[in-house]
Amino acid sequence: MVIKCEASDAPDALWVYCPSFEAAILFSVLFGLTTIAHITQAIIYRKRFAFVLIMGAIWECGGYVFRTLAVTQQKNSAFQIVQQLLILLAPLWINAYIYMLLGRMIHFFLVDDRVFGLRARRITKCFVWFDVIAFLIQASGGLMVTPEASVKTQKLGLNIYTAGVGVQLFFLAIFTSLAVGFQRRLKQQTLSLATRQSDSDSESQLQNDMPREIPSPALAKKLLILMYVVMGLVILRNVYRLIEFSTGVDSTITKHEWYQYVWDAAPMFLASLVLNIVYPGKILQGPGADFRQEDKAIKMAKKEKKADKKREKQERKLGKYTGL
Questions:
Q1: Which Pfam family, an example, fits this chain (predicted)?
Q2: Dist. CA 24–CA 228, nearest whole Å
């Protein structure tokens, strides 16, 4: 296929460099393969929260598919805008998945279901909302960085997107402290259980005192290493984008395509790949692996409360009728 390069330094140009068709195809295929793997693993291990990870992989794949189309039709602004938005926003899905993963790890591995006094479910909800905030800021900025927009609007969009990346990095820093807190709590719990077991008359007595069987700490360490690797890759990518957009539209980074593939495409593909290799859903199996049992208990409690209120109401009516 012969592709004509339409790169130009004009303010309204869609491309300031000749984009690589081969690189776009390569990462379309790579992200396509990891997406298929994530969908297959989600079906096998029946983890509903994996849809967040699948969405991230689909957006990455879709971003490079549209980038491939944009390379073949370099004057098509629609393809260019779609590929840009998908690639810029896809990592936020991976971010959300890591947030949800830590919450489930706390629920699964810790007896008291807490880190720094915060329950696992609350941690998950808070950080997912934080991710939504970062998503909205970055999306609003990304939508302003279009070829049709004025230079002033593009600069404003870059500043907004950069702020969104900064917000995301800030939340990631807080999240990292929670992950370290979980690691310390896990170590303390392991030592405490070992001491109790040595002081107990029998291992069976200790197991009877526990609300459920606690999974091996070795599995938690495996997931922690995975989470730190993925977080490191996401942070690396975000730092790159922070530098890129903070230097403006005319920076060296924005005028050379290889920066994006080395510091954005490659880290995000590696993050998706390691989540295939060490699949969390394979480890998080059994009671406490998610919040389903807690959800059932909450529903049952609500039903019982509703039934009690209905019973009390009927008793009051009966008492009024009988004059008692």
A1: RTA1
A2: 28
| One-letter amino acid for residue 191 of the chain | L
Task: Give the total residue count for the chain.
Answer: 324
pTM of the model: 0.84
Q: Which residue has the tokens 């390379």?
A: 71
What are 216-253's pLDDT values in tens digits? 888 999 999 999 999 999 999 999 998 888 886 677 88
Task: Note the helical H segments in the chain.
Answer: 21-45, 50-72, 77-89, 91-109, 120-144, 151-199, 203-209, 217-246, 258-260, 266-277, 280-283, 292-322
Amino acid at site 116: F
Place of tokens 């995000």: 268
Q: Report the candidate in 220, 223, 219, 217 with the shortest Cα–Cα distance to residue 193.
A: 217
Residues 6+ apart with CB under 8 A from 197: 203, 206
